Amino acid sequence: MRQQNLFNMNGLFELARLAKMDKDPTTQKRLYLLGRSNNRNVFNALVKELRHKALIEKLDGYPFSPVSEELMLSGIPSNDRIQLGQVKKSAVPFVINLQDLAKHCVIFGGTGSGKTTWLMHMIKQCLEKNIRVFIFDTEKRDYRGIFKIYKEFLVFDLSKNFKFNVMQPPPGVSILQWIITLVQVFCKTHSLLNLSEALLIKEFKIIFQRYGSFDNSGVYPSLLDFYDQITKRYIKGNSNVSRSRDSIVARLDTYLETHADVFDCSTGFPIQELFENNVVIDFGTFTEDQKRFLSSILMYWIFLYRIAKGDKGKGLRNAIIMDEGKFFAPKVNNSSIAFSAISYLYDQFRAYGVGLCLATHSPHYLEESVFVNSYHKVSLSLGTGEENTKIKRIFQMNDEQCDYLGGKLSVGEGIVHCPRFGGEPFVVQVPPFQP
User: Fold this and answer.
1) Which residues pair with 154 in a beta bridge?
2) CA quadruple 89, 90, 93, 97: dihedral positive or negative?
3) Where are the domains of the chain?
4) Is the distance from CB of 306 to CB of 312 less than 8 angstroms?
5) 39, CA 20 to 30 Å: which among 18, 128, 172, 372?
6) How many of the other CB atoms lie within 10 Å of CB of 239?
7) H and E: helices and strands count for the chain
8) Where are the extended beta strands (E) located within 139-237?
9) Whole-angstrom Cα distance, residue 375 to residue 398?
10) The CATH number of the domain covering residues in 69-161+270-429
11) Alpha-carbon distance 209 to 221, whole Å?
12) What Å distances lie between residue 314 and 117, 319, 351, 352, CA to CA?
């Protein structure tokens, strides 16, 4: 005896009609087979698929679901609301929770897509909420629009008006802990092997002992002092150790040949004060590896400083803006000799009041941890090819939604993916930035 069907097949046939799939042979076959079974998983999957297609037909082919204002504002205190434009095809404002910025965000967008406009709006909103903004500028972006409103920005050109002794640890951080951090970041950002790490740790300990730094002398060697020591160190023969020393010296040469003035100091600029102000760091003429090292060591400096102070769980205090993310979180093929420093900080920074916002023109060249650890993900127009395929996977989009990345998004429009909305992507329009 045939088992009675437990599902609302009439409702399912009506849903197929609304989706204009009732004449589709494959859908007809699936409906027929479902009518002869009680497979709940198959039923639910078909309902979800037909509902989505029905919604597209209802919205004249627009493949993104609407977002209600109630859901958008739910659970966000009014003083923690940041508005960035509005949801497309609605009057619903796109609002994010200020504190959610500590969970980090990533923005993708090709040239002329409006990526910088998104960043400018985000910077402005953070400043209005008294969040200190720290901008790593690798491409000499025009931030003058922001400066017209907020004149208290400190702008440093690292190759001209900045003194930074990377050998000086944050207050409260032990010399040994800083040595290990400095060595790991330097070696990984410059693709040096483990033998180089061991040699650097040994040489750093020698020079810090020589300066009495372990005895709380308050005196620290400079990078030039260390360079003099390691270049004069005699290492017998053509050994692995001597080759490691030569590799280290070659990397240091690239800093000191062109930017010796930046590092020729025992006590540099008080880094903790940078993060108490709104700051733009212009990397000037530094190379890509140098930009990566300097930005990484600055972020580790403030991270370890806040750990030493017990400065945890006090809400968002700093937003770090990193345009052209390929400099800061590049995808690496061999993690044993290279890594992105922020792949670790992404997971740890949120507890210490620092939110990272990374923007880049292509997701293809980014470290995977950026996608995993970014609560808000935004993609503006990208063009075609593997970038779209990757965004489709990360944003969990269907083919119709992915098509929008290839030219259907206007300047300033971005597809947003966020767990707060159940992972369902939607489009947000951000207006031109007006200072």
Assistant:
1) 279
2) negative
3) 9-58, 69-161+270-429, 175-263
4) yes
5) 18
6) 11
7) 16, 11
8) 154-157
9) 20
10) 3.40.50.300
11) 10
12) 29, 14, 8, 7
Q: Enter the tokens of residue 93.
A: 């404002």
Q: Which residue carries 């004060």 as its tokens? A: 273
Contact 415, 429 (CB under 8 A): no
| Distance separating alpha carbons of residues 191 and 189, to the nearest angstrom | 6
Helix (H, G, I), strand (E, B) or coil at 14: helix
**Residue 175: partners with Cβ closer than 8 Å, 6 or more residues away:** 169, 208, 213, 214
Q: How far apart are CA 303 and CA 311, in angstroms?
A: 10
Q: pLDDT tens per residue, the chain (435 residues)?
A: 344 444 567 777 877 877 777 777 888 888 888 777 777 787 778 877 777 777 666 656 788 888 889 999 999 999 999 999 999 988 899 999 999 999 999 999 988 899 989 999 999 999 999 999 999 987 766 666 677 777 788 888 887 878 899 999 999 999 999 999 999 999 988 888 889 999 999 999 999 999 999 998 889 999 999 999 999 887 877 789 999 999 999 999 999 998 998 898 888 888 999 899 999 988 888 888 898 899 999 999 999 999 999 888 888 999 999 887 777 887 776 555 445 667 788 888 989 999 999 999 888 888 888 888 899 999 999 877 888 999 999 999 988 899 999 889 999 999 999 999 888 899 999 999 887
- Are 156 and 282 in contact by the 8 Å Cβ rule? The answer is yes
Contact yes or no for 299/320 (Cβ under 8 A) = yes
User: Tokens representing 376?
Assistant: 């808000």
User: In angstroms, rounded to a whole number, what is the distance separating the alpha carbons of residues 285 and 139?
Assistant: 10
What are the C-alpha distances in Å from 222 to residues 208, 300, 303?
Answer: 10, 18, 22
Q: How many CB atoms lie within 10 A of CB 421?
A: 14
For residue 91, the SS3 value is: coil
Can you name the residues that pair with 366 across neighbouring β-strands?
330
* CA 188 distance to own-chain centroid: 19
Q: Chain centroid to CA 77: how far? A: 25
User: At 360, which amino acid appears?
Assistant: T
Phi, psi of 232 (to 5 degrees): -90, -10
CA distance linking residue 108 with residue 76, whole number of Å: 25
Written as six digits, the tokens of 262 are 């930046």
